[in-house]
Amino acid sequence: MEEYYFEDLHGYYRNLQMGLPPLYYDGRANPPDLVPWIEYLVRIMALAYEKVANLAIQFSVSDVDPRVLELMPEKKYYVF
Predict the structure, then answer these.
(1) How far apart are CA 6 and CA 30, in angstroms?
(2) Cα–Cα distance measured from residue 42 to residue 62, given in angstroms and rounded to the nearest whole number
(3) Residue 39: pLDDT above 60?
(4) Are the beta carbons of 36 and 15 closer than 8 angstroms?
(5) How many other C-beta atoms lie within 10 A of the C-beta of residue 15?
(6) Any idea where the domains of the chain sit in the sequence?
(7) In which band, very low, low, confident or very high, does the pLDDT at 37 lie, cut at 50, 70 and 90?
(8) Alpha carbon distance 24, 79 (integer Å)
(9) Nearest-angstrom CA–CA distance, 44 and 60
């Protein structure tokens, strides 16, 4: 997910700040609103998931090694 953070550093730091003032004594003692950070994190996770899912689909339709096709679920293979 770091690559998505890197592509949007401004958004990352803006959401990480959660609308709080930079200095603790300027009102940071109040509990922060975590919603912006959680929404940003979930959006980045969704982008990362979509990329992995698309790669999985791309590779799932590629040619399968014939040795893998020979493995039948009925056969039991033991490694000693």
Answers:
(1) 29
(2) 30
(3) yes
(4) yes
(5) 19
(6) 2-64
(7) confident
(8) 60
(9) 24
13-29 pLDDT per residue, tens: 888 777 776 666 666 66
CB neighbour class for 44 (10 Å; exposed up to 12, middle 13-18, buried from 19): buried
- Backbone Cα Rg of the chain: 23
Q: What single-letter DSSP state applies at residue 32?
A: P
Mean of pLDDT over the chain = 77
Does residue 41 surpass a pLDDT of 80?
yes
Query: Two tokens at 50?
Result: 């979509």
**Backbone torsion region of residue 44, taken as left when φ is above 0, otherwise alpha when ψ lies between -120 and 50, otherwise beta:** alpha
Tokens of 41: 């994190």
The total number of residues shown for the chain amounts to 80
* Of 15-19, 46-50, 60-64, highest mean pLDDT: 46-50
Say how far residue 15 (Cα) sits from the centre of its chain: 16
The single residue listed with the structure tokens 């770091």 is: 2
The token pair at 42 is 């979930």
